[in-house]
Design goal:
The chain has six helices and three strands; from the N terminus they run αααβββααα. The longest helix has 32 residues. A hairpin with a 2-residue loop joins strand 1 and strand 2. It has one domain. Helix 3 crosses helix 5. With 183 residues, the protein is mainly α. The chain is elongated, with a radius of gyration of 24 Å.
Length: 183
């Protein structure tokens, strides 16, 4: 019987490990880099032009007021303020859905797909988020009117998490229905 020869394999260095993982995950790293780049660009653009984008606040308040009154929630809208009973809601930039749209657009634009597929995703996600946001605010008005004790929990926790889940699901749906279907 022949003796076994043991070969010592050199353990890869930290740098070699990083290089290995980068080389094996180029598409994911590219997506992540572009996602961060586009997200930051959208947010910087929005914050720099925030004073010029106040029309979005008024449009959101007007739309919420119109739909609220149409479904019987009897509200009064004064600029960006929505009053129902003794409660007043102020529509601020975070209430408009623009940040959710920025995240969604960043994820769609960054994903490795054809521009035709990206355009379909953009045309779907913008109205989807605006309608979801409208429903969110209407729901919060209802909670504010009938269950004021639950308002902060629903506003700060339930809807934040729900909105994130819906954005991710919309993105996965776009990938599954539009992108993978075209391949």
């Amino acid at each position: 019987m022949m003796p076994r020869i043991q070969v010592d394999k050199k353990k890869p260095s930290f740098i070699e490990n990083i290089q290995y993982h980068i080389n094996n995950n180029k598409e994911s790293i590219r997506f992540l880099f572009l996602f961060i780049l586009f997200s930051l660009s959208f947010f910087i653009f929005y914050f720099l032009l925030q004073d010029y984008l106040n029309g979005i606040l008024y449009f959101t308040a007007f739309t919420v007021g119109f739909v609220s009154n149409a479904i019987g929630l009897s509200v009064t809208v004064d600029g960006v303020l929505i009053e129902i009973g003794t409660m007043t809601f102020e529509i601020i930039h975070e209430c408009t859905g623009m940040f959710a749209i920025a995240i969604s657009l960043s994820s769609i634009i960054s994903y490795p797909a054809q521009w035709k597929q990206k355009t379909i995703g953009i045309m779907f996600v913008i109205p989807f988020i605006l309608l979801l946001n409208l429903f969110r605010i209407l729901f919060l008005i209802y909670i504010g009117k009938y269950h004021i004790d639950l308002f902060e929990v629903v506003h700060a926790y339930l809807w934040q998490g729900t909105f994130i889940i819906f954005i991710i699901l919309a993105w996965f749906l776009w990938i599954d229905v539009v992108v993978k279907h075209a391949r």
